[in-house]
Amino acid sequence: MTRRIAVVKPDHGVAGGFEYLLNRLLTALTDIGDEITAVPIPGRQLPRPIWGQHDAASRWFEHPDFFNYLAMVHDTRRLDLAEFDLVISTQPPSYLAPHDRMLGLFYHQARIFYELSEAYIDGGFVDRALHEAAAEKVRAVDDAHRGGVVRWLAGSTECATRLRDTWSVEAPIDILDAPPLSDPPEVVPTWSAGGPVLCVGRQEWPKRAELVVAAAHLHQHPTTIIGDGGRLRSLRALDQRLEQGELDPRGRLGELDAIASPKRTPAAEAAAALKRVRRSTSVSPVTIAGHVDDATRNQAYADASVVVAPALREDYGLTALEAMVWGKPVIVCRDGGGLVEIVESTGAGLVVEPTASAIADAVQRILDDPVFAAELHDRACAVRSSHTWTRANTQLLDAVDAALS
Questions:
Q1: pLDDT tens track, the chain, 405 positions
Q2: Pick from 281, 284, 270, 282: nearest CA to 231
Q3: Residue of 111, 201, 172 whose CA lies nearest to 400
Q4: Is 358 in the same domain as 210?
Q5: Does 185 map to a domain?
Q6: pTM of the full predicted structure?
Q7: Residue 245: DSSP 8-state
């Protein structure tokens, strides 16, 4: 008998790693004859009334992220999903959909209102009192409407811990071990100290690429940063200021983050940074490549000596897995969430404090010890056989069966 399954997901207008992962997983369901229906929720929205309250539109710009979330909740709660046997929820707030049999594919809540709330305030993105009130409201809304999830499929132990710590979830929680999203190389390159340090990811908060830039100005080994995003221009300005000696690369993360944050870099500062770039004749160890195609990214993995993934409280850490299938030692930060899980479970890298100095020391340790680097390389290569689509598909199918039983 065909099972009718709805997949509820916010449409943010971008197709990233999660979208690719979701599509690959859903293929396993269609392959066994399940009928999958995508149910999108509008993501970024213009100011509008919510639940008939016109004051929401007039106050929207006081805290756009808060009102946008409430608008998505409003749209989610109005969905008619009665015809479906099961609903799979994905990104927030899809787990608030009105259905009494949901499987929650869970990586995070609306993070700036949960585990990243304090860091978001400290980054200068929002007024403290306003954000604390908004976070309290978001959590109350989530608590009131998330009862339809009968089983959770969390993307890592980090994600499962969030469910238990913040919501005291009593429904069963299974773990999904997703494999790397990019195709692995046919032949894993041997390790060499001659390749650059590499950082791959979107240049957005809280990916913290500024730590990699600052670390490069300490260890002075060629460093390549790949990925587009809203912080790309200010990241280049940070690199130039470090090269010209205007900033101490051993400075606190908050000081570096302030330079790399567009919301805290006024137009005058950006113009001054551009003038400094034009005057500078020095050569930085950092190459900030921005967006590249898949072939260029894969070649960067092949050439790299070390991959640094410094993100804060990452849900899973697919960047680390991608690096490992190329045989690369990985450096992550102690507060990196799922990234730490992957490195500690594989032994294929180092976990350090979230400072430029600690990252630079770890890079130097790997580059200076080829025997140690070769051990990390061998452990990284083992990831190809331990994290597979066959395993992930089985975990999904088992969770679906359990949720329907």
A1: 899 999 999 998 877 788 989 999 999 999 999 999 999 999 988 899 998 888 889 999 999 999 999 999 999 999 999 999 999 999 999 999 999 999 999 999 999 999 999 989 988 889 999 999 999 999 999 999 999 999 999 999 999 999 999 999 999 999 999 998 878 898 999 999 999 999 999 898 889 999 999 999 999 999 999 999 888 998 999 999 999 888 888 876 555 555 445 444 444 455 444 444 444 456 899 999 999 999 999 999 999 999 999 999 999 888 999 999 999 999 999 999 999 999 999 999 999 999 999 999 999 999 999 999 999 999 999 988 888 999 999 999 999 999 999
A2: 270
A3: 172
A4: yes
A5: no
A6: 0.86
A7: T
**Backbone φ and ψ of 131, nearest 5°:** -70, -40
One-letter identity of residue 322: E
| Domain extent at residue 89 | 4-179+389-404
* 27 contacts: CB under 8 Å, gap ≥ 6: none
Answer yes or no: is 190 within a domain: no
Say yes or no: 101 and 158 in one domain. Answer: yes
Angle CA(382)–CA(384)–CA(390) in degrees, nearest 5?
130
**Contact present, 304 and 195 (Cβ < 8 Å):** yes
Pairing of strands 223-226, 86-89: unpaired
Q: ∠ CA 376-377-380 to the nearest 5 degrees?
A: 85
Distance CA 317, CA 337 (A): 8
Are residues 217 and 351 both part of a single domain?
yes
Q: Nearest-CA neighbor of 46 among 56, 38, 36, 32?
A: 56
Q: What is the DSSP string of 82-114?
A: TT-SEEEE-STTGGGSS-SSEEEEES-S-GGGT
